[in-house]
Amino acid sequence: MRIRRDLTELYPKVRLYRRDLSASHNNVSVFFEKRGRFAEAEESIRESLRLRRELLEETPQDPVIIEAVAQACFNLAGLLGALDKTKEAEDRFKEAIKIQQKLAQEHGAVPKYRQQLAAHQSTYGVFLRDLRRFEESLVQAKAALELRRDLVRHFPNDVTYHDQLADSLNNIAIVYSNLDDEERAHRYFDEALAERERMVRRAPRNVEYRVNLAQAHNNLGLNLVNLDKREEGRTHYRAAIQAYEFIVKEHGEVPEYKVSLAKSCFNLGNLLRIQNEANNALDWHNKAIGLLKPLHESARQVVEYRMNLMRAYDSRAKAYDVLQRYPEAIADWDQAIRLADDFTGPVLRSYRALTMARSGQTENAIAETDKLIRAKVTGDVLFGAACIYAQCVEAMKSDAKQTDELVGKAVTQLRRLQKGGFFQVPDNVALLQTEEQLNPIRRHPQFEKFVAEIGKRAPPSLPPPVRGP
To answer: How far apart are CA 218 and CA 425, in angstroms?
Structure first.
């Protein structure tokens, strides 16, 4: 790059030298990003985009330069998204897509423009999905899928188009899974896995194809567990872990491979916990934390590292809770809460309070829950609060006044849920009879009265709560 910079400084009017320098900055940015050197990566890609915009001003109709600007916008958007610079990231995604759409329309005979448009739409869809804007994400993912199916139809022997088709199938499946439509998600996950297996058979030494196949196993495993096909899910988790372990051994310098291995480890650990193998689950959670903690500590600004480390601590805390190793569970909840965002923080705090209640820290559990419910919180937090107050009743049962007060607090949270339409869903009504954590208040007159009132009503609108730990 030094030579290209020198040539540009010596001959500033020679467009070729500036174009080559912009390409070098782009490549250096990719190099830095893969190694977690994000500040240097951002500086390089911004310089690449500046040079390309300058070239575009000089020749606004040149499709090569137009595409180069779109690509630099796209690369910068992805990096900014990883650094949690959401607003500018979205602006750059939209700019890249707008430019690429124009190229695809004006040069319909050139497949690479449609290919790049699909790539931009697909990645923007993932960005929106991570922001929990699922319906918007689905629009982008389906637009990309349509383009990629068309490219595969026209070029059936091009392995790259098959690989990108599998990406789109996987992305749509994940969105449907987030929308709680696991049956539909399963069809897309299954088709994506078949495409990934074909890719690896064609090029068994291609690292990217092997990584994608491992991810397909992980995603299908999670989907199968959600469909209550746990043994099948377990098989796919183990296949993912085995593949990732080989990849990390060969390419330990690439952080994203370690993140993917860690995610499969805590997914398997969570499955083992719900299959009454919490002790075995701890081994996988420990491995996940061991992989993620150094990454987070070396690049605290990277949201993906922080959020996955949070999930790993959350997962291990749940295993400790099942094993009644409460001090260790609470210590892991503390770690998870420190890493959490505004959306997940209240849920984790409710999990910690529930563990406190079970471990005999009744006053701490009540105080924490009292704080939680003062804020505007989600339905799962309100239901969790009712369960926490119910668990505290067990410790206070010798004090009739305190018991009545705690039951009153529990029922108040349930009434807040009722007001929001929560108990219009039959499955949620059933929780009043089946949720074990409500057992200590089940025969109390206040609770019985509330259940009787709910029994006179019913039908659907909200999903069941995510309870824990």
So the answer is: 31
Residue tagged 């931009």 (tokens): 120
Residue 394 CA to residue 362 CA, distance in Å, equals 10
Contacts of 54 (CB under 8 A, 6+ apart): 18
In this structure, which amino acid lies at residue 108? Answer: G
Confidence of residue 290 (pLDDT cuts 50, 70, 90): very high
Distance set, CA 315 to CA 179, 336, 369 (Å): 22, 9, 21
Task: Read off the tokens for 412.
Answer: 């108040």
Q: What is the CA radius of gyration of the chain?
A: 26
Task: Tell me the DSSP string of 254-286.
Answer: -HHHHHHHHHHHHHHHHHHHHTT-HHHHHHHHH
Average pLDDT over residues 433-455: 92
122-172 pLDDT, tens digit each: 999 999 999 999 999 999 999 999 999 999 999 998 988 999 999 999 999
pLDDT of residue 463: 37
Distances (CA, A) of 281 to 275, 285, 291, 469: 10, 6, 16, 14
Structure tokens at 148: 């990629």
For residue 328, is pLDDT > 60? yes
Take residue 73 and report the two structure tokens written for it. 């916008």
Q: Distance between CA 295 and CA 290 in Å, rounded?
A: 9
Q: Give the integer Cα–Cα distance in Å for 270 and 248.
A: 22
Q: Which residue has the tokens 């990277």?
A: 302
Phi, psi of 182 (to 5 degrees): -70, -30
Give me the count of residues in the chain: 469
Task: Indicate left, alpha or beta for 320 from its phi (over 0: left) and psi (-120 to 50: alpha).
Answer: alpha
CA dist., res. 225 & res. 230, Å (int): 5
At residue 93, does pLDDT exceed 80?
yes
Asked whether the beta carbons of 114 and 88 are under 8 A apart, the reply is: no
The secondary structure of residue 438, as a DSSP letter, is G
For residue 398, what pLDDT is reported?
82
What share of the chain in percent tops pLDDT 90? 72
Q: What is the mean pLDDT of the chain?
A: 91
174 vs 125: CA distance, rounded Å: 11
Cα(45)–Cα(68) distance, rounded to whole angstroms? 12
Residue 340: per-residue pLDDT: 94
45 vs 38: CA distance, rounded Å: 10
**What's the number of CA atoms in the CB half-sphere (13 Å) around residue 232?**
12
Give the SS3 label for residue 132.
coil
